[in-house]
Amino acid sequence: xxxxxDRSKPGDESxxxxxxxxxxxxxxxxxxxxxxxxxxxxxxxxxxxxxxxAVRSVRETAGTVLGKDRVANxxxxxxxxxxxxxPAYGWVVARFRRSKFLPxxxxxxxASLAIVGFMLGxxxxxxxxxxxxxxxxxxxxxxxxxxxxxxxxxxxAKEQTKRLFGVIAAGGSAGALVGPWLTTxxxxxxxxxxxxxxxxxxxxxxxxxxxxxxxxxxxxQQTHEVVVAHDEPVGGNPLLDGARLLFTSPYLLxxxxxVVLLSSVSTFLYxxxxxxxxxxxxxxxxxxxxxxxxxxxxxxxxxxxxxFVTGRIATRLGITTLLVIVPFAMIFGFLGxxxxxxxxxxxxxxxxxxxxxxxxxxxxxxxxxSTLSTQDRYRVKHVIxxxxxxxxxxxxxxxxxMLGHAGLSPAKVAVxxxxxxxxWMLNAWWLGRRHDSEEVTRAAQAKAGGPAPxxxxxxx
Length: 460
Fold this sequence. Notes:
This protein is mainly α.
C-alpha cells in the first residue's frame, strides 16, 4: 500500500484551480496535491446525500399515512431486512474488485428508486409499496454510506483521514441541504413519484463521480500498477468472516456497542419527537414545515462545522474528543427534556444531536476502522454499519414501547435516555483511547524500523 507521501504526488496541476479548490485551499488543511481527489469525493457524497434527502421526505410522508404503530413495527422489519441484505453484499464483495462494486451498489439503489417511483405513480395509495419503500430507504441509508466511507478508506492514508474526512463529509451535508430544497421546489409539479426519479438520477451521477475519483487518484499515483495490485475481490465469505472477526475482537465489539448505543439514543429522541410534535402542532402541513426548518438548521450548522472545525479537532485533540462530544452533551440533553418537556427544548436537543452526529461522530467512527487491514475492513464494516445499527434501532424501539406501556412518564423515559447516553460516552472514550494507543505504537515501531503491529481485528 502506498505511503501518505506517495498518495500526495501531484497529477496534472496545469491550469488555474477552480473556485471550490481555491476556497478549500484557503480555509482548510488540504494540500494542493490532494485537492482533485478531495473535490471528487466531496461531489460523490454530495450526490449520494442529495439523492437520499430528496426522497427522504417521501418516506416521511409515507410514515404519516402508515401511522406511528405501524412505523414502530417497520423498525423491526428494517432490522430483518438489513440482515437479509448482508449476504447479497458479501457475494458482491467476494467476486468483484472494489472499484467495480461501488457502482453496482449505487446502480441498484437508482434502479430500486425508479421502480418504486413507477409503482407509486400507478397507485399513490398502495400501502404495501409505501411499507416496502420505508424499509428500503431505511436500510439503504446506512448501507450506501458504509460503502462510501469504506471506499474512501482505500483512497486516503490514515494521516489524511484526520485532515480530510471532515471536509469530505461536508459534501454530504451540502447534499442533505440541497436535497430537501430540490424536493420542495419540484414536488408540486412532478409529484412524489417524480421525486423518486430525481433521486435515482442523482445516484447515477454519483457513479460518474466515483469513476472520476478513481481517475484523479490514478493520476496522483502516476501509475496504475499500485491500484490494480490492491484492487482485488476480497474473497472468502465476507458475511461469515465479518461475523467471526466481530465476535473475536474486543475492539470491533466495542465499535458495535458504540453503534447500538448511538442508534438507541437516536431512536429514543425520534419517538419523543413524534410525541411532542404531534401534541404541539395539529396541522400536518405545519408539522412538515417544522421538520423542514429543523433539517435546514441541522444541515447548515453541520456544513460549517465539518468545513472548519471537525478536521482541527481530530488533528489537535484526537479521535477520542470527536467521539465523546455528543454522548456527553446528550446526557444533559435528556435531563433537560425530563425537566422541561417542551417543543423548544426538544428542538434544541434533537438538532444538537443530529449536528454533532454528522459533524463529529460519523467522521470519528469511520476513522476507527482505519486500524484494520483492507480485507478485514470490508468483511466486518458492513456487518456493523447495517444489521448491527438497525438491530439497535429495533431493540430500542421495542424498549421505548415497553416503557410507555409500563406506565413510565415521558420524563422518566428521558432519564433512561440520559443513562444510555452516559454508557455511550464511556464506550466512546474507551474506543478513542484504544485507537490512539495503537497509533502511538505503530508510529514508534515505524520509527524504530520494526514490523507494524497486527491489525485491530482479532488481535485486541
